[in-house]
Design brief:
transport; 343 residues; 12 strands; Bact_iron-sidero_bind; signal
Length: 343
């Protein structure tokens, strides 16, 4: 006999026994017509709609830390621009943001614009955000950058979970978007944002002739670095251009981020057609890298310089955004520069 049939048989036997007991009780108490005892009414517990369908989720961030979420995340504090990028893609707004580049991306027109100015601030520096301000914000989640904000985890114990990420290619950016989409109950929004970016990229891959040798450099002075094809921006650029830059020696890229220090002499060997420059300033009055490099006679020998194809870009978006919206902006802006007749 199967388990299911056995359970049904036992239930039938139990039911017959109960009927018999009830029958005997009635026959022994004829004339007793007292009303049945009132039953206590129990109000059902009604959960918020978001929690009613939410199942506990365990994730592992880029540091290998396992985190368990038993309810949807609603309040997110951002100490890295990637967080701002992900939240706007999900139709959410941070409850607090760090200063410097994080606020810069939040106030960009493609993100929160002027509304970003009113988002509460997390004091301190990018490298050391204020724990006190994070505690005051009462977040359900704090999103930071792996390799920079790791030490925050200890200070946030008992306050909020810390998720650290640092995507090295655009597929990792998409995966992080999907993860936060699950935690916030915004899986549909995450899927739509993912598809928007992939549709844009696929369209560009079909149309772009890839006959331009492109390059992304970044830094704050003449000691610049190159984003290689294994760096986040490079994984996008090599889909739409001739992008030959590689990490030749692992020791040049100890953190595996796909960027290496470079020299103008070495740059002249490949001689790019187009150079995109991400300039970072750590003191007032710092000139863009392209202006600083112009003092070198080697700079003027580069094809991109001679053809006026050196372009200072918005480093908070190109370099710091790291999410699908920022990468989509990078695509739009680079395609319009490299192939103006096609895009």
């Amino acid at each position: 006999m199967s388990r299911t049939k056995m359970k049904v048989s036992l239930l039938l036997i139990a039911g017959m026994a109960m009927l018999a007991a009830c029958s005997n009780n009635t026959s022994n108490n004829k004339g007793d017509v007292s009303s049945p005892a009132p039953t206590e009414s129990i109000e059902p517990t009604i959960l918020p709609a978001s929690e009613a369908v939410f199942k506990p989720i365990t994730i592992e961030d880029d540091t290998g830390e396992a985190l368990v979420f038993n309810k949807p995340v609603e309040k997110v504090a951002c100490v890295v621009s990637l967080c701002v990028d992900v939240l706007i893609e999900l139709g959410m707004e941070p409850i607090a943001i760090g200063e410097s580049g994080v606020r810069t991306i939040a106030t960009s027109p493609e993100f929160f614009g002027s509304k970003g100015e009113s988002i509460p601030s997390i004091g301190g520096s990018f490298f050391e955000p204020s724990i006190e301000d994070l505690v005051t914000a009462e977040p359900d989640l704090v999103i930071g950058l792996k390799g920079v904000h790791d030490s925050l985890r200890e200070g946030l114990k008992g306050v909020a979970p810390l998720v650290l990420s640092n995507p090295n290619n655009y597929m990792e950016s998409i995966a992080f978007l999907e993860t936060i989409g699950k935690l916030t109950g915004k899986t549909l929004e995450a899927e739509e944002a993912k598809q928007r970016f992939l549709d844009k990229l696929n369209d560009a891959m079909v149309k772009a002739p890839k006959n331009k040798k492109a390059l992304i450099i970044f830094g704050s002075d003449v000691n610049f670095s190159v984003v290689t094809g294994s760096g986040l921006g490079g994984t996008v650029m090599k889909e739409i251009s001739n992008y030959p830059w590689k990490v030749e020696k692992p020791e040049d890229d100890p953190y595996g981020e796909g960027s290496v220090p470079y020299s103008l002499e070495k740059l002249l060997i490949e001689n790019p057609d187009v150079i995109f420059v991400e300039s970072y300033s750590f003191s007032p009055g710092t000139k863009p890298i392209s202006e600083q490099l112009a003092a070198s006679p080697i700079w003027s020998k580069l094809k991109a310089v001679q053809n006026q194809q050196v372009h200072e870009v918005r480093s908070p978006i190109w370099g710091d955004g790291r999410g699908t919206r920022s990468l989509g902006i990078m695509l739009d802006e680079s395609l319009a520069i490299m192939y103006p007749d096609l895009f």
